[in-house]
Amino acid sequence: MFTGIVEELGEITAVETLDDACRFRLRGPTVTEGAKHGDSIAVNGVCLTVVDHEGDEFTADVMAETLNRSSLGALAVGSRVNLERPMALGARLGGHIVQGHVDGTGRILGREPSENWEIVRISLPAELSRYVVEKGSITVDGISLTVVDAGQDFFTVSLIPTTLALTTLGLKQSGDPVNLEVDVIAKYVERLIGDRATGEGVTK
Q1: CA dist 162 to 125, 158, 167, 168, Å?
Q2: What is the distance between the alpha carbons of residues 72 and 61, in angstroms, rounded to a whole number?
Q3: How many Å apart are CA 48 and CA 72, to the nearest integer?
Q4: How far apart are CA 124 and CA 105, in angstroms?
Q5: Are 59 and 52 a contacting pair, CB within 8 Å?
Q6: Contact between 10 and 83 (Cβ < 8 Å)
Q7: Phi then psi for 78, rounded to 5 degrees?
Q8: Which of 135, 128, 109 lies closest to 120, judged by CA?
Q9: DSSP secondary-structure letter at 161?
Q10: SS3 56
Q11: pLDDT of residue 202
Q12: Rounded Cα distance, 69 and 136, in Å
């Protein structure tokens, strides 16, 4: 489990295309400290498994399903990525519960800079709109953010200078894709309410 608090801005150093997958090599001095084979690291909000680790770099395999459901397929050598290690047991939950399981992708629709923050407008797939509410939580490229406005096909977030400086959202331009993970609690509530209404999954 992750919290959506990005630890560092890493970089793709190599991409190997396989038959039905690809292998990334990534640089991240902070997240590779103490890393070992089999550990999990979130890359732009996608939970990946460390295959190999050497110095301040690690490799991770990405299967076709992940490439199809996320924006990782658009990454190339030199791309900057948000990196986060799983939350340690007993640590503070600074963001919100993030699984690292991307629900879909959106695109940057526009940016409105101001003196102390920036409003970013992001497209929202129709099948995810019911999970996104004003002042609710959403994960964008692995970053835990609070929704400012929520429409049927878009939402906005307000970014402070620290987020702009230390994550990929400071680099993204209009049209760029982003990974989206909605609040998992909303999905569980929907399923439970649906089961109660239909009787499915209810023990007599």
Answers
A1: 28, 12, 8, 11
A2: 11
A3: 11
A4: 8
A5: yes
A6: yes
A7: 100, -15
A8: 109
A9: H
A10: coil
A11: 45
A12: 23
Cβ pair 35, 59 in contact under 8 A: no
Find out whether 13 and 25 touch, Cβ atoms under 8 Å: yes
Token readout for 183 is 């609040």
- For the segment 178-197, the average pLDDT, to the nearest whole number, is 85
What letter represents residue 5's amino acid? I
Q: In this predicted model, what pLDDT tens digit does every residue of 14-40 receive, in sequence order?
A: 999 888 899 999 999 999 998 999 999
State how far the Cα of 19 lies from the Cα of 6, in Å rounded to an integer.
31
pLDDT at 44 over 50: yes
- The four Cα atoms 66, 42, 109, 103 give a dihedral, to 10 degrees, of 50
Phi and psi torsions of 114, nearest 5°? -135, -175
Distance CA(200)–CA(27), nearest Å, equals: 47
- The pLDDT value given to residue 198: 57
How many helices, marked H, and strands, marked E, lie in the chain?
3, 12
Token pair 């940057």: residue: 108
